[in-house]
Give the backbone structure.
Amino acid sequence: MSKSKQREQLPPFGTLVRVSEPSEEDEKGCVRVKTVKGSKSGNDDDTHEENGVLFWVNKSGFPIDNRTWDRMWDHVSRIHPDGYSMINKIRNKSDLPQIPIQQAPLNFPSSMPVQDRLDKVQNYMKSLQYNHTGTQFFEIRKQRPVSGLMDSAREMIKEALPIKCLEAVILGLFLTNGFLGVERFPLSFKSVFGGNVHRHVVLGIYYAGKYGSIGMSRRDELMYKPVVYKSLSELVFEFERSYNMFKHEVRKVKTGLPVPHDPHSYEFINWKALTINMNKSSPKEIAKDLDVVAKEIRTKAQREAHDCTVVTLYSSRKSRSWMTNPTSPRKTITSIDMTTGRDTYASNSLKQASKIYRSQTTMNSLDNGAVKRKSTDPAEYQIRI
């Protein structure tokens, strides 16, 4: 069967071409990829771009519908050197080997260091492999709230299919939720190679005063960076050096703000709080601009660390015990409120605790034949919190 007859079996999905991008004066010689829709396609199928390559996006969910499935194979036949011969070898073969499903690192021992946890998350994303099919399996809309994006991350874990860089950022956010002292923020790059524009995004990591990143890319040097860099500018310059290794010129860098750890949050991710033109600024100016975002990241990390030390008091009449519970929905008080007496709730709680402690101490003393103490000074009693 000739290639022309093979192509006629599939509906016209559109042609992928490159057109000039005259949006900026300094990029008149650059081109990017856009889509020319087929006149008979019928549906408005959006496309996305990553690393200068245009790809389709699966909007049908799972299981993938026949149209999206055929469109993926049609696109592969256009970009693969073997064309339809390769497709026939795979699609017509019934005894394909089973691919093992990778287990996501959802639970970590409390004693495991943060860097080891990040390594496990990165290794899991690498085990899913980079998606070279030309069709992104999971639709990621940046304007969705965090809760909606976390649903997409759960779907990635369930299906265990290859992913691209934007999907890896969402998956990394889901797998690092709850890491104490860790702040996550998007870090995007725009580079030029051979006159073509390439775009890439990773998940920046801040922990214990150091910066790093996790993500997915065709190149190992452009996704994972250990949390060892002393400043955000040092991390960005390291990425720039990695790009230069592959003859890419970094034109722009975009940094977002920290993403909340709550998977049910309705907040939106700030993807570009700061945009830097790398070829128009000196290294000192770049470092100064990045320090503004870095300060916001550090401030949020310190604020969350302070919130973890807040003491919560609550009473239980059945057990008559006083204890702490960080997940208690009741009012929280700090040590400052307790010492200054500004919070009436805290003051009353301490008085009630003193009475309960004294009553229990008196009953125990009477049972042991001891003499009842007459002192009622609250200072003589300690409440273990």
